[in-house]
Amino acid sequence: MNVTIWNEFRHERESEEVKAVYPDGIHAALAKHLESVDGLVVRTATLDEPENGLPQDLVDKTDVMLWWGHKAHGDVADETVDRVQAAVQRGMGLIVLHSGHFSKPFKRLLGTTCGLVWREDDMHERLWVVDPTHPIAAGIDRYIEVPHSEMYGEFFDVPTPDELVFVSWFAGGEVFRSGMVWKRGYGKVFYFRPGHETYPIYRQPEVLRVITNAIGYLGEATRPTVTGIGNAPNAKVSAEAARSSE
Ligand code: ZN
User: Fold this and answer.
1) Structural domain boundaries of the chain?
2) I need a surface site. Which of 63, 167, 200, 228 has the fewest CB within 10 A?
Protein backbone atom coordinates (compact mmCIF):
# COMPACT_ATOMS: atom_id res chain seq x y z
CA MET A 1 0.00 0.00 0.00
CA ASN A 2 1.36 3.42 -0.99
CA VAL A 3 1.24 6.05 1.75
CA THR A 4 2.08 9.73 1.24
CA ILE A 5 2.62 11.88 4.32
CA TRP A 6 2.02 15.56 3.56
CA ASN A 7 3.30 18.15 6.00
CA GLU A 8 3.25 21.94 5.84
CA PHE A 9 6.78 21.80 7.38
CA ARG A 10 7.13 25.51 8.14
CA HIS A 11 6.92 25.73 11.93
CA GLU A 12 9.56 23.02 12.53
CA ARG A 13 12.01 25.12 10.49
CA GLU A 14 11.14 28.46 12.10
CA SER A 15 10.67 27.68 15.79
CA GLU A 16 13.32 26.28 18.13
CA GLU A 17 10.55 25.01 20.42
CA VAL A 18 8.92 22.98 17.66
CA LYS A 19 12.26 21.88 16.20
CA ALA A 20 13.19 20.48 19.61
CA VAL A 21 10.21 18.10 19.45
CA TYR A 22 10.30 17.26 15.72
CA PRO A 23 13.84 18.07 14.50
CA ASP A 24 13.26 16.64 11.00
CA GLY A 25 9.60 17.60 10.80
CA ILE A 26 6.37 15.91 11.80
CA HIS A 27 6.31 14.04 8.46
CA ALA A 28 9.68 12.46 9.25
CA ALA A 29 8.51 11.34 12.70
CA LEU A 30 5.43 9.69 11.21
CA ALA A 31 7.46 8.19 8.34
CA LYS A 32 9.96 6.69 10.79
CA HIS A 33 7.18 4.66 12.38
CA LEU A 34 5.21 3.81 9.24
CA GLU A 35 8.33 2.59 7.40
CA SER A 36 8.56 -0.13 10.04
CA VAL A 37 5.06 -1.40 9.20
CA ASP A 38 4.94 -4.39 6.83
CA GLY A 39 3.34 -3.74 3.47
CA LEU A 40 3.58 0.06 3.46
CA VAL A 41 5.58 2.08 0.92
CA VAL A 42 5.99 5.49 2.56
CA ARG A 43 6.71 8.79 0.84
CA THR A 44 6.72 12.31 2.23
CA ALA A 45 5.76 15.62 0.62
CA THR A 46 5.90 19.19 1.91
CA LEU A 47 4.29 22.52 1.08
CA ASP A 48 7.34 24.36 -0.27
CA GLU A 49 8.26 21.69 -2.82
CA PRO A 50 7.15 22.23 -6.44
CA GLU A 51 3.38 21.71 -6.80
CA ASN A 52 3.21 21.63 -2.99
CA GLY A 53 5.02 18.29 -3.18
CA LEU A 54 1.95 16.65 -4.72
CA PRO A 55 2.27 16.38 -8.49
CA GLN A 56 -0.45 14.39 -10.22
CA ASP A 57 1.69 11.26 -10.69
CA LEU A 58 2.39 11.04 -6.96
CA VAL A 59 -1.26 11.60 -6.06
CA ASP A 60 -2.28 8.96 -8.60
CA LYS A 61 -0.15 6.28 -6.98
CA THR A 62 -1.16 7.16 -3.41
CA ASP A 63 -3.59 4.81 -1.65
CA VAL A 64 -3.69 6.78 1.59
CA MET A 65 -2.55 10.36 2.22
CA LEU A 66 -1.86 11.87 5.64
CA TRP A 67 -2.27 15.65 6.01
CA TRP A 68 -0.73 17.87 8.70
CA GLY A 69 -0.77 21.66 8.56
CA HIS A 70 -1.64 24.51 10.88
CA LYS A 71 -0.24 27.93 10.02
CA ALA A 72 -0.06 28.06 6.24
CA HIS A 73 -3.32 26.49 5.06
CA GLY A 74 -3.87 29.46 2.76
CA ASP A 75 -0.56 28.84 0.94
CA VAL A 76 -1.76 25.49 -0.44
CA ALA A 77 -2.60 26.01 -4.12
CA ASP A 78 -6.18 25.44 -5.18
CA GLU A 79 -4.88 23.12 -7.94
CA THR A 80 -3.37 20.91 -5.21
CA VAL A 81 -6.71 20.85 -3.40
CA ASP A 82 -8.43 19.89 -6.67
CA ARG A 83 -6.04 16.94 -7.10
CA VAL A 84 -6.52 15.71 -3.52
CA GLN A 85 -10.30 16.07 -3.65
CA ALA A 86 -10.55 14.20 -6.96
CA ALA A 87 -8.27 11.45 -5.69
CA VAL A 88 -10.46 10.89 -2.61
CA GLN A 89 -13.56 10.78 -4.78
CA ARG A 90 -11.82 8.11 -6.91
CA GLY A 91 -10.98 6.03 -3.82
CA MET A 92 -7.90 7.45 -2.07
CA GLY A 93 -8.02 7.54 1.72
CA LEU A 94 -7.26 10.87 3.42
CA ILE A 95 -6.23 11.04 7.09
CA VAL A 96 -6.44 14.61 8.38
CA LEU A 97 -4.52 15.18 11.59
CA HIS A 98 -5.10 17.71 14.38
CA SER A 99 -4.96 21.31 13.06
CA GLY A 100 -5.54 19.97 9.56
CA HIS A 101 -9.20 20.51 10.47
CA PHE A 102 -8.81 23.96 8.88
CA SER A 103 -6.92 22.73 5.80
CA LYS A 104 -8.30 23.45 2.36
CA PRO A 105 -8.75 19.79 1.31
CA PHE A 106 -10.66 18.95 4.52
CA LYS A 107 -12.96 21.96 4.26
CA ARG A 108 -13.52 21.30 0.54
CA LEU A 109 -14.39 17.64 1.08
CA LEU A 110 -16.66 18.28 4.07
CA GLY A 111 -18.31 21.49 2.88
CA THR A 112 -18.61 23.14 6.31
CA THR A 113 -16.49 25.73 8.17
CA CYS A 114 -14.75 22.98 10.21
CA GLY A 115 -14.38 25.51 13.03
CA LEU A 116 -14.00 24.51 16.69
CA VAL A 117 -13.00 26.01 20.02
CA TRP A 118 -9.47 25.53 21.36
CA ARG A 119 -7.19 26.43 24.23
CA GLU A 120 -3.48 25.86 24.75
CA ASP A 121 -3.31 24.99 28.42
CA ASP A 122 -1.26 21.81 28.58
CA MET A 123 -4.14 19.76 29.96
CA HIS A 124 -4.44 16.02 29.70
CA GLU A 125 -6.80 14.36 27.27
CA ARG A 126 -8.53 10.99 27.27
CA LEU A 127 -9.73 9.66 23.90
CA TRP A 128 -12.56 7.23 24.61
CA VAL A 129 -13.21 4.44 22.12
CA VAL A 130 -16.93 4.75 21.35
CA ASP A 131 -16.93 2.02 18.66
CA PRO A 132 -14.87 -0.89 20.03
CA THR A 133 -15.50 -3.07 16.96
CA HIS A 134 -14.24 -0.45 14.53
CA PRO A 135 -11.03 -1.51 12.69
CA ILE A 136 -9.45 1.88 13.46
CA ALA A 137 -9.70 1.13 17.20
CA ALA A 138 -8.18 -2.36 16.93
CA GLY A 139 -5.73 -3.07 19.73
CA ILE A 140 -6.71 0.01 21.72
CA ASP A 141 -8.05 -0.40 25.27
CA ARG A 142 -11.09 1.57 26.48
CA TYR A 143 -9.26 4.85 26.00
CA ILE A 144 -5.98 6.49 25.02
CA GLU A 145 -4.42 8.84 27.55
CA VAL A 146 -2.51 11.82 26.16
CA PRO A 147 -0.77 13.42 29.15
CA HIS A 148 -0.15 16.85 27.64
CA SER A 149 -2.44 18.22 24.99
CA GLU A 150 -3.97 21.26 23.42
CA MET A 151 -7.74 21.36 24.02
CA TYR A 152 -10.16 21.21 21.09
CA GLY A 153 -13.83 21.52 22.01
CA GLU A 154 -17.31 21.35 20.54
CA PHE A 155 -18.99 22.64 18.63
CA PHE A 156 -16.86 21.20 15.83
CA ASP A 157 -18.65 22.32 12.67
CA VAL A 158 -18.41 19.23 10.52
CA PRO A 159 -21.13 17.10 8.91
CA THR A 160 -22.47 14.28 11.06
CA PRO A 161 -19.87 11.55 10.44
CA ASP A 162 -20.59 8.19 8.86
CA GLU A 163 -18.56 6.57 11.64
CA LEU A 164 -17.59 7.95 15.06
CA VAL A 165 -14.66 6.12 16.65
CA PHE A 166 -13.27 8.37 19.41
CA VAL A 167 -14.65 11.06 21.68
CA SER A 168 -12.16 13.06 23.73
CA TRP A 169 -12.57 14.26 27.28
CA PHE A 170 -10.34 17.05 28.52
CA ALA A 171 -9.37 17.91 32.07
CA GLY A 172 -10.94 21.34 31.50
CA GLY A 173 -14.34 19.65 31.15
CA GLU A 174 -14.76 19.81 27.37
CA VAL A 175 -15.59 16.95 25.02
CA PHE A 176 -14.74 16.63 21.34
CA ARG A 177 -15.47 14.15 18.54
CA SER A 178 -11.81 13.30 17.93
CA GLY A 179 -11.99 10.35 15.54
CA MET A 180 -14.50 10.46 12.69
CA VAL A 181 -14.88 8.89 9.24
CA TRP A 182 -16.78 10.31 6.28
CA LYS A 183 -17.31 8.61 2.91
CA ARG A 184 -16.72 10.84 -0.09
CA GLY A 185 -17.26 9.23 -3.47
CA TYR A 186 -15.24 6.00 -3.52
CA GLY A 187 -12.88 7.18 -0.78
CA LYS A 188 -12.94 7.87 2.91
CA VAL A 189 -11.73 10.74 5.08
CA PHE A 190 -10.61 10.09 8.66
CA TYR A 191 -10.09 13.00 11.03
CA PHE A 192 -7.89 12.23 14.06
CA ARG A 193 -7.37 14.97 16.61
CA PRO A 194 -4.15 14.33 18.60
CA GLY A 195 -0.89 15.90 17.52
CA HIS A 196 -0.05 19.47 18.52
CA GLU A 197 3.42 20.47 17.22
CA THR A 198 4.95 21.15 20.65
CA TYR A 199 4.08 17.74 22.13
CA PRO A 200 5.72 14.39 21.15
CA ILE A 201 2.29 12.87 20.49
CA TYR A 202 3.38 11.33 17.16
CA ARG A 203 5.81 9.14 19.05
CA GLN A 204 3.13 7.78 21.39
CA PRO A 205 2.53 4.07 20.53
CA GLU A 206 -1.29 4.12 20.84
CA VAL A 207 -1.57 7.18 18.62
CA LEU A 208 0.68 5.58 16.01
CA ARG A 209 -1.37 2.38 16.28
CA VAL A 210 -4.56 4.28 15.43
CA ILE A 211 -2.90 6.00 12.45
CA THR A 212 -1.59 2.63 11.21
CA ASN A 213 -5.03 1.04 11.66
CA ALA A 214 -6.61 3.93 9.76
CA ILE A 215 -4.21 3.49 6.85
CA GLY A 216 -5.29 -0.14 6.58
CA TYR A 217 -8.97 0.72 6.84
CA LEU A 218 -8.96 3.62 4.38
CA GLY A 219 -6.64 1.82 1.99
CA GLU A 220 -9.19 -0.95 1.60
CA ALA A 221 -11.61 1.63 0.25
CA THR A 222 -9.48 1.92 -2.90
CA ARG A 223 -10.52 -1.59 -3.89
CA PRO A 224 -14.27 -1.61 -4.48
CA THR A 225 -15.64 -5.14 -4.70
CA VAL A 226 -18.46 -4.21 -7.07
CA THR A 227 -17.63 -3.35 -10.67
CA GLY A 228 -19.65 -2.37 -13.70
CA ILE A 229 -21.49 0.61 -15.12
CA GLY A 230 -22.19 3.17 -12.46
CA ASN A 231 -19.60 1.69 -10.16
CA ALA A 232 -16.50 2.69 -12.09
CA PRO A 233 -14.42 5.08 -10.01
CA ASN A 234 -13.81 7.24 -13.08
CA ALA A 235 -17.06 9.01 -13.98
CA LYS A 236 -15.90 9.71 -17.52
CA VAL A 237 -15.44 6.00 -18.16
CA SER A 238 -18.91 5.40 -16.72
CA ALA A 239 -20.49 7.92 -19.05
CA GLU A 240 -18.77 6.44 -22.10
CA ALA A 241 -19.72 2.92 -21.07
CA ALA A 242 -23.33 4.03 -20.58
CA ARG A 243 -23.37 5.65 -24.05
CA SER A 244 -21.89 2.57 -25.74
CA SER A 245 -24.54 0.38 -24.13
CA GLU A 246 -27.44 2.46 -25.51
ZN1 ZN B 1 -2.29 22.51 17.76
Assistant:
1) 2-112+174-245
2) 228
Residue 70 Cα to ligand 1 middle (Å): 7
pLDDT digits (tens, 9 = 90+) for 69-121: 999 999 999 999 999 999 999 999 999 999 999 999 999 999 999 999 999 98
Q: What is the pTM of this model?
A: 0.91
Measure 194 CA to ligand 1 centroid, in angstroms: 8
Task: Indicate the SS3 state at residue 215.
Answer: helix
Quote the ligand 1 centre to 222 CA distance (angstroms).
30
- Kindly give the distance from the C-alpha atom of residue 73 to the centroid of ligand 1, in angstroms, as a whole number: 13
Q: Which residues have CB less than 5 Å away from ligand 1 (the ion)?
A: 99, 150, 196
Choose among 197, 202, 203, 200: nearest CA to 14.
197
Q: Separation of 91 CA from ligand 1 center, angstroms? A: 29
Positions of the chain with pLDDT under 70: 221-246
Cβ neighbour number for residue 18 with a 10 Å cutoff: 18
Q: What's the rounded Cα separation, in Å, for the pair 236 and 181?
A: 27
> From the CA of 195, how far away is ligand 1's center (Å)?
7
CA 214/CA 175 separation, integer angstroms: 22
On whether the 2-112+174-245 domain is CATH 3.40.50.880, my answer is: yes
pLDDT, one tens digit per residue, over 212-227 is 999 999 998 655 555 5
